[in-house]
Every structure is written in C-alpha cells, then in structure tokens.
Amino acid sequence: MTKKVRHVLGISGGKDSAALAIYMHDHYPELDIEYYFCDTGMELTETTDLIKNLEVYFGKEIKKLRAIKSDRTTPFDYYWKSYKGYLPSSNARWCTKKLKLDPFESFIGNDPAISYVGIRGDEDREGYISTKPNIQSIFPFRKNIWSVDVLSQVYHNDNINRLVQICEKLSNERNLSRFIEIIKVPKSLKFSFSKKINSLLSIDIKLFNKIVFESLKTSSYPVSMLNDFPLLSNEDNLNRDDIFQILKDNGVGVPSYYNAVPYTVNGLKGEYARSRSGCFFCFFQQKIEWVWLYEQHPDLYKKAMEYEKSGYTWMQDERLSDLIKPDRLNQIKLSNIKSTNKKVSNSPYLLDKLMEAEGLVCANCFI
Fold it and tell me: What Rg, from alpha-carbon coordinates, does the chain have?
C-alpha cells in the first residue's frame, strides 16, 4: 500500500521558481502539487502580481504561508521587533529561518513530502535541502534531479555490490554493462564522487534515475514510498534562457524588475535591474540594486531607511542615507557601467548576467 506523499513547490516571486511551477504543472499534471508562497509582508508589488498571474494560470489558489497568525503587523516587523531592531545580514540570516524555513516546515509537519526546487542546469549550487528526514528535495531543471545527500548514500563505496545487483535486475536496459563497469570502480582521489556521477549521467540519465530510485526503496526518503515516480524519465537540463522562455510562452510574464532600466550619468549610458525576488530591502542586494530601488520605488527606499534608525544598517560599510547622495549615486552608476562593459554584453537581463559573471548569485532565500 503506497503511503500518501505530498508534492510541494515553493514560489518565491523569482523567475526560476515561477517557471518551475509552470513546468511541473504542464509536464506532470498527474502530480497533485501544492504550490505555496511564504509571505514576509515586504515583497514588491511585482512579486504579488506574479503570484496572482500564476493563480490564474493554474486555476487554483497558491497557499500563502505567514510566520505569524496576526494581521496587525507584517511577519518581518514582528520578528524585527522581537530581535530589538537587529537587522538580518549575511552572518545572521534570521529572516530566512523565521520567515521562510519555519513556516514551510510547519506547513509540511511530519508528512512525507517531495519538495521541487528550481535550481537550473547551468547553476553550480545545491539549493535548499531540509534537515527534516520527511522532506526530500528534487531538482527537475537539472539532468541530475537528485540532491547530493541522496547520491552520497546511493553511491557510497559500501553500496557497490547492492547497486550491481539492482543493475542485473534491469537486464533489458541498454548501456547496462558500461554502467556496471563504472559502478564497480570505488570512489577515490583519482576517481572522485562528482566524476563518477557525471560519468554515469553522461551514459544514460533515465537508467541512472531508475537505479537511484530502486536503491532508495529501502531508505526512509519520501520517494521510497512511491510505486512509481514520473520524473525518472526526465532528461531536461534547462538554463536561464529556457526559464525566461517558459514565462513568456505561457503568458505569465517575466517579473518586471528583471527588465533592464536605462540611465545616463556623465554622458555615459548604463542599465540596471533587480537580480532577485524577495524582500525589497534584501541585504544581499548590490549597491546598484539599492540605486534601482531608490529611483524606481522611492517610497520603499525611504521605508528601508527608517529601519536603520534603530542603529543597525543593511550594509556593513554604508548607510542608505549616504548611498543616495548625488556624488555617491553617480559613482555607483559609473562603476556599474564599467563592470557591465567588461563582463557582460547584449543581455536584456543585465544585472542577472553580471551577478553570475562575478560569482555573486547566492541562494538568499531557499525558494
């Protein structure tokens, strides 16, 4: 008897999670996916517009998760006051835990759940993996849909004999002999874990998935409770351009804050945009993104400045009141033009490209 496993997908308001929601809805309609959004109370209007557009596309409501029950204040303000005005930072990301992770894990409870995460095939990062054993992450946009903790267990050297036995039961599969040959080679300094995984994936992705799925049947991972899993046949490996295309083709649209906005400073032309979804005052923003916020949403920039009156600042090296002084604004814009001309060319999503080129993209929010 198959146990009830929940399929969940978090939408942050960013392009990747939105595109993944559309992708899963269109490609795997047999999965009863629960879509949810963690509401911090500090999102841009562009984010809430995207959520509404997705609800129209799906024909059902996206579950709104709030870290607090009261409507008298926003979840962010509630915890900001409880932390006595201490603002979150890269070294103390209480906002991610309190406003995102805790509501999500409370939403799941102790139910076995598969969480679909929008890490692209052209990204070299793992994304959020819950520490709760009843929640398993799957990555549909990558040719490797499994998380590193799963593969570390499956392809452990102590598991080689069992993997060979699983392979022998799949006698009708093509490429099986080559698979067994690689599986039998123990991981070592000369034959690393990543090299072994990539070698197997390069031979046959579907066979790779079948072997992992069969191996997990004796584990406690939620996927072990399924008789079948449709993503075993998934061979897609989608990149950034694919993501934007999904959003355009399905009419949901790309969040407008990704669109490059032109500006001129000292006779030079530049462009800026926002590279992330989430709270409008995200401390992971680059200086040019704060300039974007100041010029595109001056009311929100002013609100972000108000939080600094508690004595803490969003950036370690500069207050928001100093960043918007005319000379400083011009300096940031000129620096952005210089960096952009050096690292990026011909992109409608300029800042997004620049951030990746500089290695600055990070998973500030797990969804």
Answer: 23
- Work out whether strand 135-138 and strand 33-38 pair parallel, antiparallel, or are unpaired: unpaired
Q: What is the pLDDT of residues 23-69, one digit of tens each?
A: 999 999 999 999 999 999 999 998 999 999 999 999 999 999 999 99
Question: Which residues lie closer than 8 Å to 233 by C-beta, 6 or more apart?
Answer: 206, 209
Work out the average pLDDT over 203-214. 95
Give the C-alpha separation, 300 to 348, whole Å.
25
- Judge whether residue 351 has pLDDT over 60: no
How many whole angstroms separate alpha carbon 20 and alpha carbon 142?
11
DSSP annotation of 87: P
**d(Cα 107, Cα 365) in Å, to the nearest integer?**
17
- Strand boundaries in the chain, DSSP class E: 6-10, 33-38, 63-65, 113-116, 135-138, 261-265, 268-272
pTM of the model: 0.88
Greatest Cα pair distance in the chain? 71
CA-CA distance, 181 to 192, in Å (whole number)? 15
Together in a domain, 244 and 260: no
Both 240 and 208 in one domain: the answer is no
What distance lies between CA 2 and its chain's CA centroid?
Answer: 30
- The two beta strands, 63-65 and 33-38, are parallel
Q: Give residue 254's pLDDT.
A: 87
In which residue are the tokens 């629960």 written? 34
φ, ψ for residue 115 (rounded to 5)? -105, 120
Q: Tell me, yes or no, whether 45 and 141 share the same domain.
A: yes
Write down the residue that tokens 């009830």 correspond to: 4
- Count up the domains in the chain and report the number: 3
User: DSSP labels for 207-252?
Assistant: HHHHHHHHHGGGSSSGGGG-S--GGGG------HHHHHHHHHHTTS
Quick: pLDDT tens for 236-272.
Answer: 999 999 999 999 998 898 888 889 999 999 999 999 9
